[in-house]
Amino acid sequence: MSGPETSSKLSFEVSPIKANLGMWMGIVFCTCFTAAIWFARPYLPDVTFAEDQGALWYYWKLPNPTFLSHFTGWAGYLLHQIAIWSLIYRAQTQKLTYSTYLHPINIIALLTNGFFIVLHLLQTVYFYDGLAASTPIWSSQLSVIIMLVMILILENKRRGLFFGKSLRVLEQSRYALKKYHGYYFSWAIIFTFWFHPAEPTMGHLWGFFYTTLLMVQSSLFFTRAHLNKFWTTTLEVLVLFHGTIVAIQTDTGWPMFFFGFLAIFIVTQMHGLGLRPWIKWAFAGSYVAGIYAVYGTDIITALSEIMRIPAVEYLLAFLIAFFFWIGIALVGFFSSTALRKPTTP
Q1: How many angstroms separate the CA atoms of 178 and 160, rounded?
Q2: What is the pTM of this model?
Q3: Within a 10 A sphere around the Cβ of 71, how many other Cβ atoms?
Q4: What per-residue confidence (pLDDT) applies to 118?
Q5: Please, are residues 262 and 240 in contact by the beta-carbon 8 Å criterion?
Q6: Which residues pair with 18 in a beta bridge?
């Protein structure tokens, strides 16, 4: 083996397993877990759910929760969360470098996430309730939205925010966010994962497939796979399919979610993939054609619906950047040392 990853380094800092192989093994595991939820449906408790009470009501929870249904959901979540936060902290204190191979701590993170993923399925089968029984529905939704917005800030320098143009106003926030984003991302992912019972509806299946893929990504810290632009963009775009499927399932207007999230791909995400200009124009043209096929000449309705999601995400990007800027200023990070760019990718 040549290059910086010598055999001695492999012995002490990285494993013989390539990070890309770990990523693909994780994808296979997530696929199998999603299938397991479907096949476990005959073993789920026979629950008579309370009547749906509107947009802020979460339907899939026990009408009469028990101590054990609360305890097992929260205990599983807290143990999962503390374990992953501990691994992130340990990885940071080890001052690891980005490698094409898995570090031993990556393998531990993948196995830890895998253990708790399976545990949640068993917890659903025996006790059913997730965190939704005691937390509002918007808490799960908002946590993931903020995570997606933070990704826009983190990727600002590489691909820009609007049509490949990066915004310097986001850069100070990006530097600060880069160091600590793993703690928030893992919370948003794990909290959302334990929020829902492992129900076999199409919306739940896509949701669990998506959140477990995000756990794979979060386990690949300090590897080159963690920075793979096609992999990371795929994870961002998958929310489009999940949001659209849930909207169809709940009859809440799927075009707003489909074209709304797709607008972010056209305006921001596709510009970090190194695509040829004609491919970008083909995506943009197909997007406009799709809007016309669904909305026809009703441009006002189309714009009022499909602009909601991108407007919220871009506005939140500036708001989050502003609050980070305030925080950095308050702790005196605007010194010459604090403004120095991070050395890691």
Answers
A1: 16
A2: 0.88
A3: 12
A4: 97
A5: yes
A6: 101
